[in-house]
Prior knowledge:
CATH architecture of the largest domain: 3-Layer(aba) Sandwich
Largest sheet: 7 strands, parallel
Number of domains: 4
Number of helices: 28
Radius of gyration: 27 Å
Shape: globular
CATH topology of the largest domain: Rossmann fold
Strand content: 15-25%
Number of strands: 24
Structural class: alpha/beta
Strand order of the largest sheet: 3-4-2-5-6-1-7
Amino acid sequence: MQPSAFDRLSEPVRKWIWQQKWKSLRDVQEKAIPAVLKGGDVVVSAKTAAGKTEAAVLPLLTRIKQRVDAEGGFAVLYVSPLKALINDQYRRLQPLCEACDVMLHKWHGDVSADAKTRARRRPSGIVLITPESLEALLVRRGNEIRYLFSSLDAVVIDELHAFIGTERGMQLQSILNRIEIEAGRDRIDRIGLSATLGDMRLAAAALRPGKGYEVELVQGEDQGNGLKLQIRGYYENQREQPTDGAEPEPDEDTLEGQVGPERHGIPHELADDLFRFMRGSRNLLFAGSRERVEMYSDRLRTMCEDTHLPNEFFPHHGNLSKVEREDVEVRLRDDPRPTTAVATTTLELGIDIGDVETIGQIGPGFSVASLRQRLGRSGRRSGKPAVLRMFVIEQPPIRGRHPVDRLNLGLIQSIAMVECLRANWCEPPLPAGLHLSTLVHQILALILQTGGTRPIPAFKTLCERGPFKAVDRALFASLLRCMALPENKLIEQSPEGLLMVGEYGEKITESHEFYPVFMTEREYRIIHETQTLGTYPLESPLMPGETLIFAGRRWLVLEIDDAARVITVRPTRGGKPPYFSGSGGVIHDHVVATMRQVLSGQERYVYLDKAANAMLEDARTAYVEMGLDRSCLMPYGEGVLVLPWLGTRKLDTLALAFQNKDFKCVRFSHAIELQECTLSGVETFLNSIADGEVPADAALVDRVAKPIIARFDYCLSPDLMRLVTIFERLEIDALPAIAKALVEVDR
């Protein structure tokens, strides 16, 4: 008879479990403990609060206690995406590690230099660390890496989904590969933990690039305590409409503000409901942007003051000081007073804030994975279900609305997200791109770590063995030449062929800001003449000549300055614009396809309130009246409205194809509006693409703005930036199938 998972743990670990008075191990722990004890790479996925951390740490502590021939050095690296998560895990794991007589270290930017020095001098046990601190350790202490990590038993990557397909994830994979090489190890076990993984095999490939098929997959089946869910609908506070059909002239507030709740205020009914549902309890309210977080926090705080109650509503976002954020976290976790944190995405990951009663979300959000992660913050206590309320704001049903507004797409997307969640679907991890910006960073880091390296060994370390496998030798050589250009001077080469950090590279690498590869600010200022209208999150391809909808008006894009992050515009006419906040976010094809099913179907959704039900019926009626049940193309004004029901990347690519053919194009929400054209002209163009007449990649990309999305995008040559845009930000190969589907449906 095989020993149970509990029986296979070491005595100190079993003793600690008994002391906690656990009745049994969780499902994910029963499955993960044998897999981790066996050795090798493992992905562990289960719902939030299912015990994934212990599923990895309990068997790893057992492995540490069973080692008899281990030399000095850290035994386990536990990599976490946030300093706050590390502080939280340290507090949770310290009693367990003390019971097992294993050292536990935390290592990030807020940890004292003395504590890090003590850990370096006598490395042992488990170290909790961020990718940036791990990078700094390799760069600054390259000669100590073998001493610190030669006996490393395993690496745990917490919140694995937060790294997959991102620049930061590529950096972490590269760092772990460099540690293996420097420590003289073929491989060191990697254990990825995540609550939201849409495709476990893609996650395995991300954990061990090139050898994902060797990764063992562990899926926890703990169903939790159930879910209470509601979507509530609200109409935006109605503003005065012109009576003569003319477009209203913008006033000063129109030009400086933004469309939507930020500009027009929170609907009174929504504010009352938020106050009613959340006052007197512990909640998280995800409000979207920093501006919305501040707006909702202020409105709810004012309502507390007006009713002579102590404030219970506090903002939480990345622009606040560390002290202010931690005060909110501690109050949620340790303070019995009612508290609601109004947050961006900062409380989405697994920081321990105790059990909250309700999760609120303004609008649909952009991913099912994010929704699932947020949902896991509630319903942690036995017998208490998770509670999720989504609050959706739509335009009032008044005469003269734009056709897209009639479809209430915010509500439809919210329903689609919930239906995907109920079907246990979430977005699969993105496949690895070129990530040339992060490769630039890693070349500089490798040079600093080694004191200088040659091109071929660098290529073998970073690309051949490392995660940048999409980069071949020719592209790597082009990137090195680009880094050495006089305008970049990131690297230079000695007469002996050794790569060294160049003049500008030294200035960059000497700063503490060198270690992160991610960028937090990606917004462009929109300027009309000398007036700044606001900021716009430019994460999608945009080109001069395109029409932009912003602040409730249409604007013709005159010029895009990527270096200064400025979009110069002038007003343009063209009828009443749709409601569109200009907020960024990449939506998956499957979500948009589900939206179409919601609109075309007859299903009733029991989780909609009365207002949301009425909005759904209005949207379904409009969908049929506009003929969208028969065609994705409809004449509108002096042009054509295209609703192709595509995810963000495919929609952007289709819009670029139209622009390349000199169509006057406006992209918004889930639609493309083409101006001054005929339906037959659009159909002719789509038929040509369906027949294989696809525009050349370069033709689509050359005139497009190249937003500095990644850290070192600014130093890439036009040719390299074109490759990145084609490879990572568009889906040009999908154009024939997209066009064929559109014309076939139209027929």
